[in-house]
Backbone:
């Protein structure tokens, strides 16, 4: 991903050097992103959450599984800062493990969806004509089936949604259609430009042109879409786990924690609120980062402010 | 217009067929409808399993089964989509998939319809207001609410709203909002006003939950497109010739600004159906959501297929309506 971005710089600035200033496109993008306050704060918060989720369990005395020394059903105390469940889990341990699984699933989905989606969309846009029509009908098919329904159907039917990577694989397989549409749109305009013609004249194969010339130039929209896909994947995974078709016990995910505490929101709020708040915070930060990236990579098109 | 409509309907048939092949293969490959039976302790007689396999047509190959599911030719008379039969169920020999699906369709359509109508209306109002007062406090708060709503898991929000409903009922000392059930049973034998009261009681909270996500994303779109229109030349002209602000906004700006939103709403139907499943689960409605969850849990592949086909059709119909609305809203578009 980062390699793509770097190789994009010389190609798109090569034609017209930017105002004589000695700043590469990369630096300009970076400075625009750094100036986006909400996105920077979000990035810091997200990194902190990720660090806690991945490193925290190594230091915290309780894991995410049932332990005999854990008193059941305790409200938050010094020993268990977020309380315990009826079965004898430490909620903080569960929360860290849940966030870890959520982030692993979401990033895997994002990478998988981005790779499939951008290759598919770029191929459709580059070849055009009948190939494009057929490939985009396939995208339509993936767009008309409600995502959560489809992934739950496959995962629940398979009864193999035990592991995080099975869940990630299933979600990734179904969530690339949006990116394919975005990339196709960009490629449709890129392929008419001279550098593509030059590459073709130099004898480059279509695969080479797509991977080395078209995709790097579409890196901006792709990165933004990939970021937003992370948030989509998080909510999908949480929904799946809430319906009990996602990550299965004894492993834990945030959606599963909410499902377990569904009837306990009033009586034992320490079970119900932390996983939900954490989900909201993660998705919120990712959406803000995506917003900041959009402003930085593509200043012409902004959703929030004009 | 009529020719265009017919052509659109015809062109969506291949997509539906392709979607049905894809889902059929995936559901077939991913699970075994008889896994519960096979896992039974003590193990059932092989002849029992064989009978069940024959009943569910599992003794045939997958392409054969797809053909059978589609046409019903060579089946036992309980399968064949083109004959209006959805196939045998794993849940029991007498369980009729089509009948159950139709029974629950009304319940869910009521919720989805109400949520979409309210989300659309409020999104238009919120989008227009924040575009007209760009960078005001109101605009910023609406933007923040939008971001927050987009990050909110539907089922968690549903839990909070449910709790709020319970709390409100306790405060009011009577059951103003029902927090459990869809109210279909309670509606029996009520007069007209009773029906309305009952509907309000049972539908308010789930509708608020389901409309939140759609409202958030649609109001963002509406704000963007409204801003674009407000800064355009023809709106400036309308103001210059002295039209009152209300007329400019309603007759000139809003009508154009609504056009992009129709597409977004149509695409959003799939998301609302997703949300409806989660909402129904929390509020314990007996709608399509419960049908779906049971079907997945029981590995009921024909019931799942029927469900997916129904939701796919709903999304396609919504897209068709959006395309036709485009022509009504935008006089520049003419369908030949």
Residues:
């Amino acid at each position: 991903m980062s390699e793509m971005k770097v190789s994009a710089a010389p190609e798109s600035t090569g034609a017209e050097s930017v105002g004589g200033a000695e700043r590469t496109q990369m630096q300009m993008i970076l400075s625009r992103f750094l100036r986006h306050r909400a996105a920077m704060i979000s990035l810091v918060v997200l990194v902190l959450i990720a660090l806690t989720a991945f490193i925290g369990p190594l230091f915290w005395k309780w894991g995410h599984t049932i332990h005999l020394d854990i008193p059941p059903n305790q409200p938050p105390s010094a020993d268990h800062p977020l309380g315990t469940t009826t079965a004898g889990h430490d909620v903080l341990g569960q929360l860290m493990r849940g966030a870890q699984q959520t982030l692993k699933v979401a990033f895997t989905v994002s990478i998988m969806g981005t790779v499939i989606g951008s290759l598919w969309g770029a191929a459709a846009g580059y070849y055009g004509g009948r190939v494009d029509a057929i490939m985009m009908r396939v995208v339509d098919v993936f767009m008309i089936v409600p995502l959560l329904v489809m992934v739950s159907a496959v995962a629940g039917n398979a009864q193999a949604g035990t592991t995080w990577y099975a869940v990630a694989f299933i979600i990734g397989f179904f969530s690339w259609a949006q990116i394919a549409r975005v990339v196709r749109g960009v490629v449709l305009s890129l392929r008419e430009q001279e550098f593509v013609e030059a590459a073709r004249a130099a004898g480059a194969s279509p695969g080479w042109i797509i991977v080395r010339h078209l995709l790097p130039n579409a890196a901006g929209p792709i990165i933004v879409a990939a970021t937003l896909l992370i948030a989509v994947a998080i909510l999908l995974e949480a929904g799946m786990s809430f319906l009990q078709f996602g990550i299965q016990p004894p492993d834990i995910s945030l959606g599963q924690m909410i499902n377990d505490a569904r009837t306990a929101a009033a009586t034992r709020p320490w079970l119900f609120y932390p996983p939900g708040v954490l989900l909201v915070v993660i998705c919120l930060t990712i959406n803000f980062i995506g917003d900041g990236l959009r402003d930085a990579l593509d200043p012409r098109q902004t959703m929030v402010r004009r | 217009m009529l020719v265009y409509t017919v052509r659109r309907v015809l062109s969506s048939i291949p997509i539906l067929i392709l979607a049905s092949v894809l889902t059929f293969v995936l559901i077939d490959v991913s699970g075994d409808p008889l896994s519960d039976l096979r896992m039974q302790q003590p193990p059932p007689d092989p002849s029992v399993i064989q009978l069940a396999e024959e009943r569910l047509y599992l003794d045939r190959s997958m392409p054969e089964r797809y053909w059978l599911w589609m046409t019903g030719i060579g089946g036992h008379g309980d399968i064949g989509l083109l004959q209006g039969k959805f196939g045998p169920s794993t849940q029991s020999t007498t369980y009729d998939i089509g009948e159950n699906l139709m029974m629950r369709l009304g319940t869910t359509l009521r919720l989805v319809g109400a949520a979409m109508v309210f989300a659309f209306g409020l999104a238009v109002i919120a989008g227009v207001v924040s575009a007209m007062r760009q960078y005001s406090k109101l605009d910023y708060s609406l933007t923040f609410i939008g971001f927050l709503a987009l990050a909110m898991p539907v089922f968690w929000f549903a839990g909070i709203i449910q709790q709020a409903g319970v709390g409100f009922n306790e405060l009011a000392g009577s059951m103003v909002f029902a927090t459990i059930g869809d109210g279909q049973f309670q509606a029996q034998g009520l007069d007209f006003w009773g029906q309305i009261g009952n509907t309000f009681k049972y539908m308010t909270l789930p509708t608020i939950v389901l409309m939140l996500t759609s409202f958030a994303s649609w109001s963002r779109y509406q704000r963007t497109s409204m801003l674009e229109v407000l800064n355009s030349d023809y709106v400036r002209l309308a103001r210059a010739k002295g039209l009152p602000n209300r007329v400019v906004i309603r007759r000139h700006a809003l009508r154009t600004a609504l056009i992009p939103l129709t597409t977004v709403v149509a695409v959003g139907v799939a998301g609302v159906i997703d949300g409806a499943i989660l909402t129904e689960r929390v509020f314990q409605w007996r709608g399509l959501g419960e049908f779906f969850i049971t079907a997945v849990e029981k590995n009921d592949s024909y019931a799942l297929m029927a469900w997916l086909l129904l939701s796919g059709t709903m999304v396609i119909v919504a897209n068709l309506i959006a395309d036709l609305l485009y022509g009504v809203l935008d006089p520049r578009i003419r369908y030949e």
About this structure: The mean pLDDT of chain B is 84. Residues 2-86 of chain B form one domain. Strands of chain B lie at 79-80, 85-86.
